[in-house]
Amino acid sequence: MARWRHLHELSVVSVFLANQELDVSERYLRHRVVDAHQAALKWVTHADALGVDSPDEREVAALQLESERLVAKYGKEFGRDWGWAAAALGTKSPKFTDIEKATGSEHLRPFFKLACQTSHAGPQGLYFELGIRDPDDDRIIAGPINSGFTDPARFTARSLTHIAGSLALVRPSIESLATVRYIDELAVRVAVAFAETQDEVEALGIGTRLVRIKTRLAKYWSELWCRVRHLST
């Protein structure tokens, strides 16, 4: 789920950029300078505590000069986190949740938060394990487990479909649109196959070997991934 969470962020941003004017993509790429400048300033501030050398003063000054130039061009909102999306969203303090809402992805926010629980330091992570379905089971998972993989799989397939659709819009053609349609069908097959497999694993017991199950699912994943990669080339 933590890996899907990252993929979800990529999916949301790619869909957002694909549905905006080219200027927004240019802002996205140029915002790298703002991020680099902010990171450099933090590095300078904490260099002594970290026991490392500070960044070269000339490099920091160059980043500051370029960052200020971009802020002067795009507005002060550009100098903030997610500032590249400020104008497109019509807000002075954009957040990732705003981009989610603009792409119609806000319904995935509960699962996004769910994916954060066991990887962040919140108290809920002490009482919740994605791979354990029995609420009375207080074990802590310390390795691979044959449970809880259906949601990560179906969300991953769906996010890959959205990314594929965004890639297809870069150079739209009958072939690319047909490929996206097929990827969408594969995503549905992935969701069904993983759900059926999860039911089988639970019926047979948590210690069941997954050799046969992996064989069943691998064909969907390999084809799905190959199709997405083809669109990116």
Give structural notes:
With 233 residues, the protein is an all-alpha fold. It has nine helices and no strands. Helix 1 (2-18) packs across helix 5 (96-102) and helix 1 (2-18) packs parallel to helix 7.
Q: Helices and strands in order, then pairings?
A:
Blueprint: H1 2-18, H2 22-50, H3 57-74, H4 86-89, H5 96-102, H6 109-117, H7 150-168, H8 174-204, H9 211-232
Helix pairs in contact: 1-5, 1-7, 2-3, 7-8, 7-9, 8-9
| Poorly predicted tracts of residues | none
Q: Estimate the strand proportion.
A: under 5%
Global mean pLDDT: 85
> What does the largest sheet look like?
none
Number of distinct helices = 9
Distance between the termini: 27 Å
Structural class: mainly alpha
Radius of gyration: 22 Å
- Oligomeric category: single chain
SSE order: HHHHHHHHH
* DSSP helix fraction: 55-70%
* Number of beta strands: 0
Summarize the structure.
With 233 residues, the protein is mainly α.
Sum up the structure in keywords:
233 residues; mainly alpha; 67% helix; globular
